[in-house]
Amino acid sequence: MEIAKENQDIFFTDREGRRNTECLSWGIDKERVLRGRTGIEVCFDFMRSFHMEFRNLSEEGLVSSIEIGLGASGELRYPSCPETMGWKYPGIGEFQCYDRYMQKNLRQSALSRGHLFWARGPDNAGYYNSRPHETGFFCDGGDYDSYYGRFFLNWYSGVLMDHVDQVLSLATLAFDGAEIVVKVCNAGLYSYYLMDKFASTYYMKKLIRTLC
Predict the structure, then answer these.
(1) Cα dihedral sign for 94, 96, 97, 99?
(2) Which first-to-last residue range defines the signal peptide (predicted)?
(3) Coil/strand/helix, residue 112
């Protein structure tokens, strides 16, 4: 992508500054950094163009459903556990919130709560292959359950849920009038689902509870 050559911050980024180019950061959902368009606008334009190009196939019943990609590997999740970064199951993964735009979003959220010093990712959440008990953030009684920890995890999961809401709302609009079922693919990583901390995939636990 030509844009990415000039601005790598359109991709998710981990604490060490490593970019994941599998999907665009949700930090640009409302930022006009894609040649005048936001990430959400590009997504909508793609869906609408797809519908117009293949409209005859849906009208003839040859296309009856569409699966909307909402994150890494087309699944509803952050790219928290990339094998390209050395992750192996059952590592907890890493937070993907260090691109310029996610950091801007985090700063605004922290300011709205009156705690600017919360505008940072956890510095003790371990690495891709850490276990929860090996970290200061996810261990029993760790920072995940502090005022800051709850704020950060709620913000992190909230960004995902906002992205999902916007994309699916626009999918309904893009495919309006077509007899097509819109589907999504849930993530399949639940290594620590029964634990309160749920490591860096915490947002999935909250989202599943919201959807059920």
Answers:
(1) positive
(2) none
(3) helix
